[in-house]
Design goal:
Layout (H helix, E strand, L loop, with lengths): L2 H13 L1 H17 L8 H8 L4 H9 L4 E6 L14 H11 L3 E7 L5 H4 L8 H16 L6 E5 L5 H9 L7 E4 L10 H12 L5 H11 L11 H11 L15 H16 L10 H4 L2 H13 L6 H11 L6 H10 L14 H7 L1 H11 L20 E6 L2 E6 L23 E6 L2 E6 L9 E9 L5 H6 L7 E5 L4 H4 L7 H10 L4 E5 L12 E6 L16 E5 L4 E4 L3 H6 L18 H6 L13
Helix pairs in contact: 1-16, 5-12, 7-8, 8-15, 9-10, 9-21, 11-14
């Protein structure tokens, strides 16, 4: 393995030793006291199986079979989660074939950032992850289960499910994907229509038709945003069946993978000879493998927050310096929108995760000895599932990509680094995703245009006041200010300005997620303005310098002048659209670099 990767892994282990020891001590205590249903009272057990069929009750009473807890994020508004409607019954039938049982342990909320994007509800999005974690913990708290299957895909759902399940790390846990929708309108065309709408050259009817052609059926959105980055992450962590992420819904292969996951998790419970508890799978090796896979594929910047929170739930302290160090030695070997024109269906057809992992393992960038839920270790994840008649089997992934414009090898990488850079300077610490930013746009030095609400940019844009070099500063968008919503309303306008030849950039304590694209964006800035960060003293006209090559993020104003300025007042946070119920979250949440989490002390 590359020494740089080993060094990062060792550093994570060293700085986390006390926290990890505490976590494992708690897990060992749970393992000693649960989940054996024999320790439940007769009344407890009777309540736990009252709704089951008589046959399932008989199996549960035997105590020597496995009972699987299903935690589901099903709802029929989310295209990515609608397929889960039929999963629980499939899982139950598969469990019965092995003389075991399965129950829906609980449901978790699943909101769609695509629906709430630019709306007030988006301010609940990040905190919904913590709610999902808590709901997962509640679901598994009945101590009826020998393992768990997590049904979820999208942005906050997978991180929340993992954070909650890790509190029951003595259980084997697997994630079960639903797969992406078939490809729709090409991404380049979608972006063209969005920018034309921003310029007033097409109307809302044309825009809606383009969006509807892009997002058109059940399944995950096909661009490589946070939802699909989650899928690569859980595969790289060894928590999902290899090659299962991007198989489309409503196919025979998709159904076979769901059945297999149900059968397989039964075979890795404590009642088997191949016990694989989640706490043993999610270690520093798995976390670094996930980092490498995300960076090599141009994954979502949201995972710079979520993976840190997941790690914390497992007793590890990650930070952005870890991401920066891994990115520096990890080549970008996938080009999937927004880092290219292809979507995840094209990526899957080119070889998918099997080819991606093979190249990264061959380059010494991933740890083949990491523990997994499947196979001997992570070295067995360079495989893909296929149907042999009606039987499911795994075969070696292709030796090389079938489309090198979409997926290549380390020797012929699209970039020498993973496209993520830590920015540091007078303004604080931030991250920038550079994998879709052209070389000529990686350095911007220009006057600031300061706003405290993303809706304030459109009037300036329409009035022509932004037709110049500028750095748009959007502040009071951090987790403690308003829940850290994503700021995608800005993207089309900034893209238009860049296409006109202006040097533009974005600096914010908010988020941009996996759709961060061609405009350089310093995001997740910490300390955030609400907590006294210097961003709250920046004024329109101050010159901002963003250098994605050197990692510099500064304001070219002398220290005495900055010290003499008052911190700008934070805009009021209204309590409409449910935001009032998240007052406690905003008051206790930690920084973006600590996972923007309101759960851990």
């Amino acid at each position: 393995m590359r020494t740089e990767i080993v060094k990062v892994t060792d550093a994570i282990e060293a700085r986390s030793q006390d926290l990890r020891d505490d976590y494992l001590r708690d897990i060992d205590a749970m393992r000693a006291g649960a989940p054996d249903r024999q320790q439940l009272s007769c009344g407890n057990l009777a309540h736990g199986m009252a709704a089951c069929s008589s046959n399932d009750k008989s199996v549960i009473k035997l105590m020597d079979s496995a009972n699987i807890g299903i935690v589901t994020a099903y709802n029929d508004m989310l295209s990515a989660h609608a397929p889960y409607e039929t999963y629980p019954e499939r899982i139950k039938q598969a469990a019965r074939r092995l003389g075991s049982t399965a129950q829906i342990a609980g449901g978790v909320p699943a909101m769609c950032d695509g629906v709430t994007q630019g709306q007030s509800g988006m301010e609940l999005s990040l905190f919904s992850r913590d709610v999902i974690a808590q709901a997962t913990a509640v679901s598994l708290s009945h101590q009826m289960f020998d393992a768990a299957l997590l049904l979820g895909v999208c942005d906050k759902i997978i991180p929340g499910l993992l954070m909650g399940a890790l509190q029951f790390g003595h259980l084997p846990v697997m994630t079960v994907p639903a797969g992406p929708m078939p490809s729709g309108l090409p991404n380049k065309e979608k972006i063209r229509i969005r920018q034309l709408f921003a310029e007033g050259k097409v109307g809302r009817e044309e825009l809606l038709e383009a969006e509807s052609q892009s997002y058109h059926s059940q399944g995950t959105c096909t661009f490589y945003g946070t939802a699909n980055s989650n899928q690569v992450m859980v595969e790289a962590m060894g928590l999902q069946l290899p090659g299962s992420s991007f198989v489309n819904p409503d196919t025979q292969l998709r159904d076979a993978l769901t059945d297999f996951a149900a059968e397989h998790v039964i075979k890795i419970t404590a009642k088997s000879r191949d016990y694989r508890p989640m706490a043993s799978v999610v270690d520093a090796r798995a976390l670094v493998n996930a980092m490498v896979a995300l960076l090599a594929s141009g994954g979502s910047t949201n995972l710079c927050i979520h993976l840190i929170a997941i790690a914390r739930a497992a007793g590890y302290r990650l930070n952005w310096s870890d991401f920066d160090a891994v990115s520096a030695v990890t080549p970008l070997i996938a080009r999937v929108y927004p880092n290219g024109s292809a979507d995840v269906n094209h990526f899957h057809a080119a070889g998918g995760t099997g080819v991606l992992f093979r190249n990264l393992l061959d380059a010494g960038l991933m740890n083949p000895e990491a523990s997994t839920c499947f196979g001997d270790n992570f070295g067995d994840y360079c495989q893909e599932p296929v149907l042999d008649g009606e039987s499911l089997r795994w075969r070696d992934a292709a030796d090389q990509s079938l489309d090198k414009e979409v997926l290549n090898d380390a020797a012929n990488a699209f970039a020498s680094n993973g496209g993520l850079k830590l920015l540091n300077g007078k303004l604080g610490r931030a991250v920038i995703k550079t994998s879709a930013v052209a070389d000529e746009h990686t350095v911007v030095e220009a006057p600031a245009v300061v706003i405290d609400d993303q809706d304030a940019l459109k009037p300036l844009f329409e009035a022509g006041e932004l037709d110049r070099d500028c750095v748009v500063v959007v502040r009071y968008q951090g987790p403690s200010a308003n829940g850290m919503p994503e700021l995608h309303k800005l993207t089309p306008m900034l893209g238009v300005l860049q296409d006109k030849g202006y040097r533009v950039a974005l600096v914010t304590d908010g988020r941009m997620s996996g759709a961060s694209g061609k405009v350089p964006a310093a995001i997740h800035l910490t300390p955030e303005a609400k907590l006294g960060g210097l961003l709250g003293k920046v004024q329109t006209g101050d010159v901002i310098r963003l250098d994605a090559n050197t990692g510099e993020l500064g304001v070219l104003v002398d220290d005495d002048t900055l010290a003499s300025r008052e911190q700008a007042g934070a805009p009021s946070a209204p309590n409409t659209v449910g935001r009032g119920l998240f007052f406690a979250n905003r008051g206790t949440v930690n920084s973006a670099e600590e996972g923007a989490c309101s759960l851990f002390g």
